[in-house]
Amino acid sequence: MTGSIGQFPASINREPASGRRTAAHCGSPIVSGICAHARMERPQKGKGSSVEKKGYWIAHVDVSDPEAYKRYITANAAAFRKFGGRFLVRGGPGETMEGRFRARTVIIEFKDYATALACYRSPEYMDALAQRKGASIGDLKVVEGYDGPQPADG
Predict the structure, then answer these.
(1) Widest CA span in the chain
(2) What are the pLDDT digits (tens) for 110-141?
(3) Is residue 135 part of a domain?
(4) pLDDT digits (tens, 9 = 90+) for 13-30
(5) d(CA 68, CA 61)
(6) Do 15 and 22 contact (CB within 8 A), yes or no?
(7) Cα–Cα distance for residue pair 131/71, rounded to 1 Å
(8) Same domain for 98 and 131?
(9) 96 is a domain residue
(10) Cα separation of 55 and 121, whole Å?
């Protein structure tokens, strides 16, 4: 079997007795389709590593009291600043293609899922949330990002 292993074009050898797969170019074991050399060179993902999946807040909101909602926006800045929240979508035009959504969509990115959860549960955000009560109704979900294979990866 030939192909590309990580960054290295390589052949894969299979030991007849054990079925163990090794890269022909270096003899390293193949794990999840990648030889040890390529694995060491690419950033590792997951818990305890330097590369973590991002965390996101995805909110759909109907604002009933725009003046009170402005106070919420002012108040939530303290929590987002403290936890590094970054707006990817903040209202703006949109078209519902399927299903039902509220009038306003907001997507906020955090460095990781744990930080996104911590921001929501923080005293700073709870203070802001009190400002939002009665000014809007909404749906909010905190989700972990995805960094696996993509269709464009081929």
Answers:
(1) 74
(2) 999 999 999 999 999 999 999 999 999 999 99
(3) yes
(4) 555 565 666 666 566 665
(5) 14
(6) yes
(7) 6
(8) yes
(9) yes
(10) 14
